[in-house]
Design brief:
The chain has 457 residues and is an alpha/beta fold. The chain is built from 13 helices and 17 strands. It is globular and about 70 Å long.
Amino acid sequence: MTFDTVVVNGVAVFRGTGPSRVTIAVKDGKIAGLLDPDERPQADEIIDAQGLLIFPGLIDPHMHIGFVGQPLTDVASETRSAAIGGVTSIINYLLKPGDYEEPFAELTEHIERLAYVDMGIHLGIFTPQQVEAVHGYMEKYGVSSFKFFMSYKGDEGTRRGVAETDDGLLYDLMTMLAKIPGTVVNVHAENIEMIWRAEARVKEQGLEGLEAHNLSRPGQAEAVAMLAAMYMARERGCPLYLVHMSSKEAAQEVRRARRAGGTVYVETTPHYLSLTVGSECGLLAKVNPPVRAPADVGSLWEAVKDGIVDTVGNDHSARFRSEKGGGVWKAGAAFPGVGTMLSVLLTEGYHKRGVSLERIASIASYNTARIFNLYPRKGALEVGSDADLAIVDLEREMQVSADYLQSRADFSPWEGLHLKGWALRTLVRGETVMRDGEIVGREGYGTYLRRLPPPHH
């Protein structure tokens, strides 16, 4: 057989067995063979990996393209940035309080026309009518994960352009999803009543900067909301995915609560694993929940090592430096991160803390694919899986620059820092989309990912 592409001289990071030499054969966008490392089959294209690592293409389950007034044309720039970082699939949040038919069609049209990598969609749930519609969303749109903000109570949601929520609505959503196999609820867990009071106290004291933001949204507010969400999910029998865990308090409570049973998945982010209130980037790193203290970073890495953390997402948003001015209370929250995801994990996890390459591949790819109904199509180096590959130089050290990352955002909170371990080549379904920091793929090559549960659910 003549293959389309063969990758030779690479060291693949396999689930279960770790790194090992292999020849990867690709046909029709799929991995068609995992061959003896010395085998050289016929192929239209031979890629010499030159002893570099081959990761399964990374999957970012937490992207915000088209939110807070950002244009949907960002699908092009932000999927370019994903490819720069070895990310081959993303799942973007579509957050609207009304009917989804028109905004869903608009977003998927932009994906099919502009995306460089593959994209799925999570839908936000804000109203009782949307709760009743989730079964239809799954069948019509191929969406199996639904976002809920516990913090959008009172006018907190409406002033952010969505809608007011409450814990009763979350309970109803969990009750509904428990009846639909293969679904999961993605919960932003912060207790807003605690935050309102904490923020008032911090403002009275005249505090500023990232430390003020951290004190105004304390880890206890995250832990309390996570506990409530975990109890409701366990009681209803609904799989729960806790997004962007940021604090040692939350990690401790998740560790305790998991012993009680129920299906709970936990996501953290590269910024909570590397940035703190003392980071030089200052308010460029403002985000909700906040970046916190070095002790929180250490606690989250322990949670990565011992299996409490299942996935890593970026909470990526293509904001501008100009939106970060005016002091801590006026600065916009969120920032870009998809292009530096792998490099932060390798620098802080593998090089500094000895986290295994297999563990990094699990939290950055395989686990995400499994939780969100993308496995075995995505997330693994297996015969029959999409040939999504990140060819990575563990020893490549580079200074972070926004220009290199190619997001529409004009900054990175890691800008100026040196990160060690970068993707040198990114393949999506067997096609090279990034090589040596240059985008060589084409707009519109990426495709929309319908995510229906496998038959065994």
